Each structure stands twice: as structure tokens, then as C-alpha cells.
Amino acid sequence: MSKTYYNPDDLRKFGEITEWSEELGNKFFDYYGKVFEEGALSAREKSLIALAVSHVVKCPYCIDAYTKDGLQRGITKEEMMEAVHAGAAIESGATLVHGVQMMNKYDKLSI
Amino acid sequence: MALLKSLSARKNDLSKPENQLAFLSNGIFREGKLPLFKDKIAESGNFPLKPKKLEVLQLNLGYMCNQVCSHCHVDAGPDRKEIMTKETMQQCLEVIKTTKAHTLDLTGGAPEMNPNFRWFVEEASKAGIKDFIVRSNLTIILANKKYHDLPEFFKKYNVHVASSLPFYKREKTDKQRGSGVFDKSIKALQMLNEVGYAQQGSGLKLDLVYNPAGAFLPAKQGELEKDFKEALKEDFNIDFNNLFAITNLPISRFLEYLIASENYQDYMYALVDAYNPAAVESVMCTNTISVSWDGWLYDCDFNQMLELKVKSKVQHISEYNEDLLNDREIRISQHCYGCTAGAGSSCQGTVA
């Protein structure tokens, strides 16, 4: 057994998930491929969204993959970092907006 | 980071082509984790790889260069003294007069640093070759007063200029090619525009060559061209015709970088994963002959740097015979995956 939960080489094996469930695996990869095609949003814009989400869901494989994807597309490091901040702002906002729930509960319980 | 000296001057093991070839055949390839290039092209019936119609004659006028770029597959630099002599140039001119190739492509190093460069361009232009390319690193134009008139000189002989510019931003360009390279390149491009290059109706062609500044593959050529055009026009009022996206091949200084940065294995996986059989059909070595500074013949510029001479009875420009050469078998190794990844890669950009 490996000594860490994450191994960078495992990203390369992602496609192998299809081996244990061919239909679902194929459906996922077809969907995934379709999502990242040029559409109403450019492939470049989608790459930046994917990078931001990768950080929010804290997926090291996705961060490696979309940093490299961004470099290939000529996305600058300033653009990448702004995307990460956009993700981080939503994530911290999602935490902080629960502060309202805390305030509501506090007020309800207090005389 | 940009370097100060070539592998050759540093006496690095990788300055010897046999060490590079051994490295490219060992490790992941010897262990069978990745297929040998030979086996991969055999899957689509392309082994042995054979030439098609000869289109490009590429001459390397020498390895001397005013820059020491970190990705350079030639290992060029100011410390390289290999320069094509006038005698070899004469032999090349004889071939240029009779070749069926429609494109003559001069490269280096910085070809302009060859002391007989201008004489050779004048003579070669008389042969009436359809497309006459000089690969210029741009900064040479500003490197010394004697080069300042190169844009005018290129214009006079209707030379098609293909210039390297890794990115439209300063930081990435300077990191790959050396401090100050970006500003000089921009100035040189403006000088070329001023004499008419890439201006409507002038007929003077100016193309840019993009290669990734790191261990990743280029994006689609068309998308990159659009980004470069918009950025260079808006920021510097620069025009150019086409952008060629070139993949960095894992040889020479780029191989050194891949190994030192622990990116070699991932990069080779990326190249093999992106293997495109359609690119093999029109890979550069099937329509090109590359001639070294000392007149030896190769399937491409990369094989030249690996000292893999053509597999033919004819191996030197002095005994050049196009029919015999066209019957050869192209020499390959694992570096060839660089030309067959994605949309393919050649000195003229993508191929598939």
C-alpha cells in the first residue's frame, strides 16, 4: 500500500475507473468532454472556472491538471490567481453567510 | 531560467548525442511503461517511416547565437564556434539551383551571425526559390550596429522572416530567452513592420514561432495566434502574418531542463498520450532535408542535433542526390513523439 492517500501518478490512471463500471464511466467521460468544448463560454473561460472549482473542492489532481491546461492555453498566472480568489471568496462567503443563521439563533434564544 | 553557457561549454553529459539517445531509450521506455516510437507508428502501418515529396531544404548556417535560451535544441550560444564555411555554402548553392524543394529555410544559431550570411542570401535568392525563409531570433537585429539594417536587407531579397517569440508578455519570454529579450524582440518586430513586413500589399511575410515556456504542450495554433495578434496589436501596434506553434522536443537543453525539474516522465507521458497518427502522415521529416553547418544531411534539425545522419548512400551535401535520398528510411527515436503530439509539430507549425 502507498503511504499517502494522493499519488500524482494516479491522475494518469483516471480513465481506468471505466474498467469497473464501463457504462457509467463512459457516460461520465463523454459528459466531461462535452462540458469543456467551446460553447456559449470559451474553452479558455471554462478552464479558469475549472481551476477555481478545483481549489474550492481541494482536489490536488484537478489543480495539477487545470494549472497545466491554463499554461497550455496561454492563461497568465495573474488570471489564474484571480480565478482562485473568486473561488475562495465564494467559499468564504458561503461560510460567513451562515453567520446570519448564527445571529438568528442567538437572537431567538436570548431574552 | 535563461542560461549563460551551452551544454557543450559546460561539458555536460547531455552535450553528447549518444547520451541523450541512451537516456531516451532507457527508463520508462525500457521498462515497457511507454511504447517505443517505432512500435507506436507500426500500429498505424507507418514503420518504416519513408519520405514523401521533398518540399523544404533546411540549412543550418551554424550554432553560434547571441542568446542562450533554456529550451534550445541546438545548444546554441555565443560559445559555439561551428559555422558553415563559404565552401560548404557553395556546395549548398549548387543543390539549391536544382532542388525540387519549393522552400529554402535558413536556420542556426543565429544565421545572421555567419560572416557570409548576406553573400549567401544574395546568391541563393537568384535561384528563384518560391519561399525563402530566414529564422531570426529578432534580438540579433539590435545586438550590434552592423545588424541594424537587417530588416531592409531581408526586404531587398523578399526573405520570409520567421521569428521566435515565446509569449506576448515580458516575463515568460525573458525567463526562457534571457533578460531584456522581450523588449528587444518587440523593437525588432516594430522595425520589421516599419519596412513593410506583415503590412497589407507588401508581400513581405513575417511569421512568429511560439514554443511553450515550460514542460507543457502548446494549445491550438489558431487560438494562440488570435491571442498573440490581439495582444501585440493592442500593446505594441505590431502586425504579423501567421503563428507557428512548435512543441519542445525532449533533447539537448530542454531535456536537461526536464530532467532537472523532475518533469521528464510526465512530459513523455503527455507526448505519448497526445500521439496522433494523422500527424505521422505529414510529419516534417517526410518533406524536409536538413543540412548541418559542415554539410552533413539529416532527416530533420532534431536528428541533426542528435547526429543521426540520413540512412542513405548519400550523406553529404557534396554528393547530394535527391532521388537517392528520397528512397531512404527516416531515422527515429523517442524524441519523435514531440512531432506527433496533438496537432503535430514542425518548423512550419502544426501539421494535422
Key terms for this structure?
A: 111 residues, mainly alpha, AhpD-like, B: alpha/beta, TIM Barrel, eight-stranded mixed sheet, Aldolase_TIM (chain B), iron (chain B), rSAM_ArsS-like (chain B)
Low-confidence stretches of chain A: none
**What characterizes the major β-sheet of chain B?**
8 strands, mixed
N-to-C order of helices and strands of chain A: HHHHHH
How does the overall form of chain A come out from the CA principal axes?
Answer: extended
State the helical fraction of chain A. Answer: 55-70%
Give the C-level CATH assignment of chain B: Alpha Beta
Name given to the CATH architecture of the domain at 41-109 in chain A: Up-down Bundle
Instruction: State the separation between the terminal residues of chain B, measured CA to CA.
Output: 32 Å
Specify the overall morphology of chain B.
Answer: globular
How many E-type strands of chain A? 0
Order of helices and strands of chain B: HHEHEHEHHEHHEHEHHHEEHH
Structural domain count of chain B: 1
Q: Which sheet architecture does the biggest sheet of chain A show?
A: none
Write up what this structure looks like.
The complex is a heterodimer of chains A (111) and B (352). By secondary structure, chain A is mainly α. Chain A has a domain at 41-109: AhpD-like, CATH 1.20.1290.10. Chain A is 69% helix and 0% strand. Chain A has helices at residues 17-20, 22-35, 43-56, 60-72, 77-96, 98-109. In chain A, helix 3 (43-56) runs antiparallel to helix 4 and helix 3 crosses helix 5 (77-96). The longest helix of chain A has 20 residues, at 77-96. Chain A is extended, with a radius of gyration of 19 Å. An eight-stranded mixed sheet of chain B has the order 6-5-4-3-2-1-7-8. In chain B, helix 3 links the parallel strand 1 (56-60) and strand 2. The radius of gyration of chain B is 19 Å and the shape is globular. Chain B has helices at residues 17-25, 37-43, 86-98, 117-125, 140-143, 150-156, 170-177, 181-194, 221-236, 252-260, 264-273, 277-281, 301-305, 322-325; strands at 56-60, 103-107, 131-136, 160-164, 206-210, 243-245, 288-291, 297-298. Chain B has one domain: TIM Barrel (Alpha-Beta Barrel), CATH 3.20.20. Chain B has 352 residues and is of the alpha/beta class. The mean pLDDT of chain B is 94. Chain B has 14 helices and eight strands. Chains A and B meet through helix 4 of A and helix 9 of B. Chain A: Residues 23-101 form the Carboxymuconolactone decarboxylase-like domain. Chain A: It comes from Salegentibacter salinarum. Chain A: This is 4-carboxymuconolactone decarboxylase. Chain A: GO terms for molecular function: peroxiredoxin activity. Chain B: Pfam families: DUF3641, Radical_SAM.
